[in-house]
Amino acid sequence: MSVAPKIPPLIDLLRDQPHRFDLFRAIQLLERQLSAANEDAADGPPVRFTANPSLSFPAHEIQHLSLPAPVDGDGEGVPRAEMAVNLMTMTGPLSALPQVYTETVIRSLKDRSPGFAAFLDLFNDRIGALFFQAWRRYRLPALYERHGLAGGDAASTALLSIAGFGTPHVRGRLSLRDEVMVYFAGLFSQQPRAAISLERMLADACGIPVKVQQFSGRWIAIPQSEQTCLQGGFSRLGGYNRLGVDTVAGARMWDVQGRFRLILGPLTRRQFRDHLPGSPGLRRIVELARLYAGAGLDFDVQLILRRNEVPDCVLQGGQGAGVRLGYDGWLSAFPMVRDPDDAIIDVSNMDYYH
Asked: What is the Cα–Cα distance from 84 to 298, expressed in whole angstroms?
């Protein structure tokens, strides 16, 4: 059997074949390699830009690349690579100056007098750094790759503010990463909130099928002071209730407006276990749903297991985890004819917030 050829590391490929890389992607890769991503953006990338001393037609953006030699930890500053480029330079095939300057540079280099070329490369280096910074300034992926949430780039800060996480003290308090809020900032900005948006957000964030069942009923306890009763003695509680208007018989009432149900599945055995009480999967679902739906709505979670994934009901022993009564334990001598959906988890009293 043939063995697939080993793919060289990306930085080695950049060093050996720089012409295959886009200019800006190559600079980003060098930033990562040379540990310059934490430096101030005003310092520029860890690359020294030079002009390609030629009048030939440029087939690539990068003509040549020289990586710095490894240095000890005692060295000052960050080592810089040297990159000869074919665009945005004072001289070269696409120069900003008249062609005579490029011819002068070529002639001086042949005479082993690199002074004039080195002088112009001072400007080429600065122009290249400014060109790269201008390219990255208005591209969100590039900004986020450099700064991230910790760096507080303007785009991420604005999206976090839209999602309700604009101030630093409300971040990092959930098991979800703050990047999730940035990704779903558009959905969090919508008013009123929609069930279809919640379905898509949970399915995308957790990677499982999710459906929202609206108007899922619940019993609400009525405080004794508000219960309907016959007026008598010195008690005036419950008096003057009107039949068919505000009279409720009993100590609780059925409400269908303040509760919905999250139906997860059909799930595999592993996915089912990952969303049982006490699991990180259920915690992510509950946190994101509560954050989106708000405190005014209650909900529960229903898990549906694929019928071909139903485990045998055995006592827990040395062969792995057993079943949990009320969740994934079924007594049946025959295969399931439908996906079991008996597991319903009430999350109203679960405290998932730090």
From this structure: 62
What are the backbone dihedrals phi and psi of residue 321, each rounded to the nearest 5 degrees, phi first?
-75, 140
Distance, in Å, from the CA atom of 149 to the CA atom of 152, rounded to the nearest integer, reads 5
Task: Give the distance, in angstroms, between the CA of residue 231 and the centroid of all CA atoms in the same chain.
Answer: 60
For residue 102, count other CB atoms closer than 10 A to its CB.
23
- Kindly report the backbone phi and psi dihedral angles of residue 298, in degrees, each rounded to the nearest multiple of 5, phi listed first: -105, 160
Cα separation, 215 vs 213, in Å, equals 7
Instruction: Classify 268 in phi/psi space as left (phi over 0), alpha (psi -120 to 50) or beta.
Output: beta
Going by DSSP bridges, is the β-strand pair 259-267/252-255 parallel, antiparallel, or unpaired? unpaired
Q: pLDDT of 279-321, one tens digit each?
A: 999 999 999 999 999 888 999 999 999 989 888 777 665 555 6
CA 299 from chain center: how many Å? 25
**CA 122, CA 264: separation in Å to the nearest integer?**
61
Neighbours of 173 (CB within 10 A): 12
Return the structure tokens found at 88.
């945005």
Residue 126: partners with Cβ closer than 8 Å, 6 or more residues away: none
Tens-digit pLDDT profile for residues 132-168 = 999 988 887 888 777 765 556 777 888 888 888 888 8
